[in-house]
From TrEMBL:
Organism: Blastomonas aquatica
Entries under Pfam families matching the protein: CheB_methylest (PF01339)
Protein name, per record: protein-glutamate methylesterase
Domain of life: Bacteria
Positions of transmembrane segments: none
Enzyme Commission number, as recorded: 3.1.1.61
PROSITE patterns the record matches: CHEB (PS50122)
Span of domain CheB-type methylesterase: 1-188
Gene: cheB
Keyword terms of this UniProt record: Chemotaxis, Hydrolase
Length: 188
């Protein structure tokens, strides 16, 4: 099944990890990709500009009440949780931090699992805490595809290892395997 959306979470080392994955998406990639990276509060989110220059698909900061469009990478704004509503639209929230983070990966993953069920792919990349573990478990429980960066190759293995512990059915993959998996989703 081709997913209706892909969600990706990263923390420490995440920009480097995403730099190996997102620019590899071909221009014909038609699945929306929602990304949470732990970024400091009250800082301009330079990720959109950074990845916009590197990627063949559109890159933007997620906006409240926006309807997801294919072929677009949506980054969570600094200091806002990124959620997916039941109708597939985006919602932003300034509710309490989760796992000491806002935006939190678990919030995105859990709401996307509720919205898309088995038509969702979730990917947990490098990071130094446990954010994303419960969310990936929710994706797996909803029948979605759960992927983690192989902990042994992650810059900071804590987050992928925690996600594997919570979601043992998740597939541990190298960057090349993740990139190939995503590129195959764009195949005609």
């Amino acid at each position: 099944m081709t997913p209706r959306a892909i969600v990706i979470g990263a923390s420490a080392g995440g920009v480097q990890a995403l730099s190996r994955i997102l620019p590899a998406l071909p221009a014909r990639f038609s699945i929306p990709v929602l990304v949470v990276v732990h970024v400091p509060r009250r800082r301009d989110n330079a990720l959109v500009e950074l990845f916009g220059a590197k990627c063949a698909v559109d890159v933007k900061e997620a906006e409240d009440k926006e309807v997801l469009g294919g072929g677009t990478i949506y980054f969570a704004p600094a200091d806002y949780h990124l959620l997916v509503e039941g109708d597939g639209s985006i919602s932003l929230s300034s509710e309490e931090a989760v796992n000491h983070s806002r935006p939190a990966i678990d919030v995105l993953f859990e709401t996307a699992a509720d919205a898309f069920g088995p038509a969702l792919t979730g990917i947990v990349l490098t990071g130094a805490n446990h954010d994303g573990a419960q969310g990936l478990k929710a994706i797996g429980a909803a029948g979605g595809v759960a992927i983690v960066e192989a902990p042994e190759t992650a810059e900071v293995p804590t987050m992928p290892a925690a996600a594997l512990e919570q979601c043992p059915s998740a597939r541990a993959m190298s960057f090349d395997q993740i990139t190939t998996y995503l590129q195959e989703l764009a195949a005609p």
